[in-house]
Write a structure and sequence with these properties.
The chain is α/β, with parallel strands linked by helices. The chain contains four helices and 15 strands. The protein has a domain at 2-13 and 30-125 and 179-249: Beta-clip-like (Beta Complex), CATH 2.170.270. It has helices spanning 51-56, 138-151, 234-237, 240-244; strands at 2-5, 18-19, 24-25, 78-79, 104-109, 113-118, 127-130, 134-137, 156-158, 170-173, 177-178, 185-186, 192-198, 208-213, 224-225. The protein is globular and about 55 Å long. Residues 102-228 form the SET domain.
Length: 258
């Protein structure tokens, strides 16, 4: 349930932006091969004896609690039940794959343009939405980036959780195709975090990027994430990687640290 509101000017939502609920794999991006998927044999909702849990988590603990929120806000990757699993559609380990169910608003702001605002309370740890767009090769992403830089716009999100920065083979581009995540703005003090998710594609280079609430978010608040992605989290800022890459020294332009 998403509204569009603009009390600022006559600007409409980008006319060349096309809504899609699933990412589109473009030339050079391999199709999903479900023959490599292994599913569980659970009946109804999965329990912690589920093979999906035992095989993917060292602690053998579900990522979600009974309220379907992240148990551990620092969990770095989620493996959900897939299309080969026999558990029910209401399984507690099928959250991200259902997409956004929140009441949101695409709102026009006076200085920064469009943003995404929640119309309802979002509890800490709740799933918000997925980053959806065109999945393209690194080569295609580099070509598009040149054009986007000239137009002063870019929505390229590298699928780099399992690869060192700069070496990932695929990128998700939400410039022309996407969902409500297209309108989420940056903040150095975000209320959303990015979590990589594996569901129906066993190729880790093609993981999803899902947004979860890092704290309770009140109705009317803008939804924001750090454009540094995983590298921008507090956990990474404190590591040697964060110190080497100068993440802590990045100048803030969003106003969060002023």
């Amino acid at each position: 349930d998403i509204n569009v509101i603009n009390f600022v000017d006559d600007e409409g939502v980008p006319p060349n932006f096309f809504w899609t609920i699933k990412s589109l794999h473009r030339k050079g991006v391999p199709k999903v091969d479900v023959s490599f998927l292994a599913g569980c044999d659970c009946q109804g909702s999965c329990t912690e004896d589920c093979n999906c849990i035992k095989e993917n988590y060292a602690d053998s603990i579900f990522p979600f609690d009974k309220e379907r929120r992240l148990k551990n806000n620092k969990r770095l990757v989620i493996y959900e039940c897939n299309s080969c699993c026999k558990c029910s559609p209401d399984c507690i380990n099928r959250i991200v794959q259902k997409g956004c169910s929140l009441k949101l608003c695409i709102l026009r702001f006076p200085k920064k343009g469009w943003g995404l605002v929640t119309r309802e309370f979002i509890a800490k740890g709740s799933f918000v939405t997925n980053y959806i767009g065109e999945v393209i090769t690194k080569h295609e992403a580099e070509e598009r980036l040149g054009r986007y830089n000239r137009d002063q716009r870019t929505y390229l999100f590298d699928l780099d959780y399992f690869k060192p920065s700069g070496s990932c083979p695929f990128t998700c581009d939400a410039v022309f195709y996407g969902n409500e995540s297209h309108f989420i703005n940056h903040s150095c003090e975000p209320n959303l975090r990015v979590v990589p998710v594996i569901i129906d594609n066993p190729n880790p280079d093609l993981h999803l990027n899902a947004f979860f609430a890092t704290r309770d978010i009140e109705p009317g608040e803008e939804l924001l994430f750090d454009y540094l992605g995983l590298r921008g989290t507090d956990e990474v800022r404190k590591t040697d990687v964060g110190k080497r890459t100068g993440i802590n020294d990045c100048k803030c332009y969003c106003g969060a640290r002023t």
